[in-house]
# Entry
Amino acid sequence: MAVSPFKFLQEVRSETAKVTWPTRRETTITTIMVFVMVAVASIFFFAADQIIRYLITFLLGIQ
# Structure
């Protein structure tokens, strides 16, 4: 069943109108939270990496 490009664009436009778009404030808060979580994850993985590095060098007796 082929759909004409015009009909397809009409359907896309009608579906897009149904979407609840976030406000600028919601987008800003979400973006800030993403950056905060990235920073927290980075600190966690850096600390975990340093602890593992220390344990391995201690166990293997590497200076």
